[in-house]
Design a protein that fits this description.
The structure is a single chain. The protein is an alpha/beta fold. The protein has 2 domains: 149 residues, Rossmann fold (3-Layer(aba) Sandwich), CATH 3.40.50; 62 residues. Helix content is 54%, strand content 10%. It is built from 11 helices and 5 strands, in the order E-H-H-H-H-H-H-E-H-E-H-E-H-E-H-H. It has a 5-stranded parallel beta sheet with strand order 3-2-1-4-5, with helices on both faces. Helix 1 packs across helix 2 and helix 2 runs antiparallel to helix 3. It is elongated. The C terminus is likely disordered.
């Protein structure tokens, strides 16, 4: 490919872990008198508030509890997040990319409390991590992507162009907004699909992906 990729930007929820916003809405719905769809619509403005850093986890729990007729302990914004699992398939790809010298960054629409979990568990695998609560914009605003690219470029000692970046997210809205400013944007669904997308994008750059492909082919011949 003409553009030499320098930086990979990863979303967290639904990509590096198995957190799916709808599952949390269902968790709330099971404890109140509203459907999952109603809960989603009702708490959406409060989620934007916490993701933008305007309120903290305690205030989120209290606001949602009042709205849904629950207790703050039942809402459990931070505690629920502590119980999610990591996506080992995606993290395997992350480790391989890092071993080959690519810059890696996290960009998540998250508040301080949940971001503290990300920092403890995931950030050590990346060169930099960014959360919306401490940024000038949240995804899908293009300013969020450009902010991360600029910061990582400064850390690296050399500017990075948008066309030298791969962005991976499970939200099509976020992917489309990144693509509009020249970023190579990949829509995530499974780690297997991500491997295939990276093979197509990077050609021979990722040795582990090539190696897995050869092993799969050998297995098929044996069987």
């Amino acid at each position: 490919m003409e553009d030499r990729i320098k930086l990979f930007i990863y979303d967290v929820d639904g990509v590096l872990n198995d957190y799916v916003p709808r599952n949390y809405r269902e968790y709330l719905s099971n404890q109140c008198a509203f459907t999952t769809e109603e809960v989603s619509a009702m708490i959406k403005p409060i989620v934007v508030e916490i993701s933008s850093g305007k309120i903290d986890a305690g205030e989120f729990d209290r606001k949602v509890a009042r709205l849904l007729g629950m207790t703050p302990e039942q809402v459990d914004w931070e505690g629920y997040y502590e119980r999610i699992r990591l996506n080992e398939g995606t993290l395997g790809i992350v480790k391989e990319l890092r071993s080959q010298g690519y810059k890696l960054a996290i960009l998540t629409n998250e508040d301080a409390s949940r971001y503290s979990v990300i920092q403890r568990v995931l950030s050590p695998m990346f060169d930099a991590s960014f959360a919306s609560y401490a940024m000038p914009a949240i995804k899908p605003n293009p300013v969020a992507y450009e902010y991360v690219i600029e910061k990582v470029g400064l850390m690296s000692g050399a500017p990075i162009k948008n066309n030298e970046v791969v962005f991976i997210d499970d939200s099509m809205e976020n992917v489309e907004s990144a693509a509009k400013i020249g970023i190579h944007a990949l829509h995530f669904s499974t780690s297997e699909k991500l491997q295939a997308d990276l093979r197509a994008l990077l050609k021979t750059d990722i040795k582990a992906i090539q190696r897995e492909s050869r092993i799969d082919a050998q297995k098929k011949r044996v069987t």
